Automatic annotation (TrEMBL):
Bias kind Basic residues: ranges: 88-102, 122-140
InterPro entries, per the entry: C630.06c-like (IPR018555)
Protein name per the record: YNL050C-like protein
Region Disordered: start-end pairs: 88-115, 121-140
Biased composition range(s): Basic and acidic residues: 104-115
Signal peptide (residue range): none
Pfam family, one: DUF2011
Coiled coil: none
Length: 140
């Protein structure tokens, strides 16, 4: 049996990620596809001027329209729905039995709290020890 005092060498683990993880490398065909699918600055400017011209044309036809155009039926329907919800919440009042039950529940919770306080006082009295000869701490 051989005993060796040499410690085993530590294994070196390479935890580096490949460069593809950090940097993208594209072929010439892929770069061409990207170029064809992208939008140039000039195209963006042309489209934005078209939109502005359309807005100006609309304002020329309707000079009283200075803001954005909304669908009146959808807007009114949404407002009416909100008003109905508010009205329903405002008008809701519990019935007579429900109101009486609520008062009764409040009274009962007060009674339970009072009983709990009373029991706490009695427990405190039960374990209360007065000083004196009998209850004096004895040291050994």
């Amino acid at each position: 049996m051989k005993i060796s005092l040499k410690e085993p060498e530590e294994e070196i683990i390479n935890q580096e990620r490949p460069k593809d993880y950090y940097f993208a490398s594209y072929s010439a065909d892929q770069k061409l596809q990207f170029q064809q699918s992208s939008i140039d600055y000039d195209v963006i400017i042309q489209e934005s001027t078209k939109i502005l011209e359309d807005d100006l044309r609309i304002r020329d036809k309707w000079p009283y329209c200075q803001g954005r155009i909304i669908d009146l039926y959808k807007h009114n329907a949404r407002i009416e729905l909100e008003q109905q919800k508010e009205l329903k919440i405002k008008k809701r009042r519990p019935g007579q039995k429900q109101r009486a039950a609520k008062k009764l529940a409040l009274e009962r919770t007060k009674e339970r709290d009072a009983k709990a306080r009373e029991i706490k006082k009695q427990l405190k009295k039960k374990f209360h020890k007065r000083g004196g000869k009998k209850n004096k701490k004895r040291y050994l």
